[in-house]
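ARCHIVE RECORD
Type: protein–small molecule complex
Small molecule: MU-OXO-diiron
Source of inputs: curated submission
Record status: active
Notes field left blank by submitter.
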Amino acid sequence: MAITEILPGIHYVGVNDRTTTRFEALWSLPIGVSYNAYLVVGEKIALIDTVEEAFGSRLEANIREAIGERKIDYLVVNHMEPDHSSSITALRRLYPDLEIVGNAKTLQMIDGFYGIAGGTVEVKEGDTLDLGSRKVLSFHMIPMVHWPETMVTWCAGDKTLFSGDAFGTFGALDGGITDSQVEADRYWDEMRRYYACIVGKYGGPVQKALQKVRTLPVETICPTHGPVWQREIPRVMDIYDKLSRYEGEPGVVVAYASMYGNTEQMAERVARELAAEGVGPVRVYNLSYADPSVVLRDVFRFDTLIVGGPTYNGNLFPPVAELLDRLAARCIPQRKFGWFGSFCWAGASVRLLGEFAQKMKWEPLCDPVEMKQGFSSDACGLCRTLAGRIAERRRSE
Ligand code: FEO
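STRUCTURE (tokenized, with ligand):
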């Protein structure tokens, strides 16, 4: 059996992308990304999702390698974001009799994106599609994971879930396809980063999807990005569960920006004192240089966030404001929050960081630290106090 035949009659026909530098034109891809598509072969054949259109010819070659000149009867569209749907038009040219299977929202989007209105089959929650040879697909809606039309496809006979973006991760597939064929540990941080950047706003819908998935005796999860999960399903579910509950694990992110290094010294001092107090892990990011997706990943991962920045034009320094915008957009309901800032002649950053914490209803760990002009022994002492209070709070929990 070819390595691409994950289970008898279920073929991986996806592709790796190691050239795109920004996913959604936003998020870095240091180890690439895969766009996964799958063939389910019974007496009839269904393709589940497609790939980004620049890789359409590879999808076609992979399909031919798996099924030769046989025709595809159905294209099941679990998710319409163009990284999975933009090969639909080309695929339809190749297989003109193909019927497109999707829910009402999907079919509206197919018309809207690609002008395709006919040759479709509308499905609702729990509907089934019998391909013959014991390959029966059923469809289950998981709206907002990650768009409103998203659904999963369940193949009960193989205990296999085609999960769309759910349980996906950044990271191309290095040779293998299933989690026992690749180095699974390479993907955990990429999964958190993917979750934080792409799905992070939708914790509630992810929880609902998890509840639905838990009712199924799943043995194989085929997501649209990253490895096929078999051995590591409990760990994958646990990561998605924790992230979608916004439950940070113990740890501190110190995220700061600094124009001339004075605020940076505050950040360094806070981090050093936290380490000296035995609080950890501590991860420090200079927001003017750090990859925003990595900062977001760690804010999702850890329970404590300390933000610092100078006052700039009577406002927050832009890299700090950008972080706060990203956090607010993801509606993170709780984080233990500390903050510090600086100014030259009229302070604003500390006040504005405090207002942000109030808006987010985040728990302040202690009073903030505000520094006027250069980093001094007084400022150093205040930072030490801030770190000490955070450490006390951590010890008392
Ligand atoms: Fe991978 Fe929401 O698309």
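CURATOR ANNOTATION: The two ends are 53 Å apart (CA to CA).
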